[in-house]
Amino acid sequence: xxxxxxKPQVLGDKRALxxxxxxxxxxxxxxxxxxxxxxxxxxxxxADAVVQPVQPVPVDLRPLREEALRQxxxxxxxxxxxxxxxxxxxxxxxxxxxxxxxxxEENAQRTASTQTLIETIEQHCQQALVHTExxxxxxxxxxxxxxxxxxxxxxxxxxxxxxxxxxxLGQQRVLKVHVSPPDxxxxxxxxxxxxxxxxxxxxxxxxIKAGGCIVETVMGELDARLEVLLTKTCHTLISARASxxx
Length: 246
Hints:
9% strand
């Protein structure tokens, strides 16, 4: 069966069709300016107008700079303290080594000084000993001279020296006995005069000063003068001292 197409009903009154509008879009009335007074023309700067530059906003950087300087100072101070501690440790070790070396040098110097002092003391002691021995020899010599002088002021002393000198000659023939002039007078004035014999003669002799005698024999002379005897005694004492020191 064919569909029936009906003609739409047309009313006699004509109506204007309103266009469909979207509620999401603003109405045309709202987009229209309310009045001409609301529309302001855009201001155009004149050609000769000076454009002012934009002024920067000042920012205070001092706190940041001070903080950075403070941190830098703290880091530097820490580094300095670390270096100082390391240097102190090295210095302590170096100081110990230096002190030990200095102590060793001082000990060596003290040892050398002590050795020198000991050697000096020994030298002084040796010199003092030599001087003492020389002084003792001189005292002994003076004592012998004094005793001999006291003995020789008598006739017995003069005779004793002469007899001792003659005894050393043994079997040699004695011709004369020379004595000092004072001793000759002393013997001459004595109660017991010296023994006389045809083989012995007493004569004064100016060569004899301190005492003693010179015995004349057929073989020569024996010098028994007191000064000669004392000199020999002194030499004997000095030789004995020298033999002990060597």
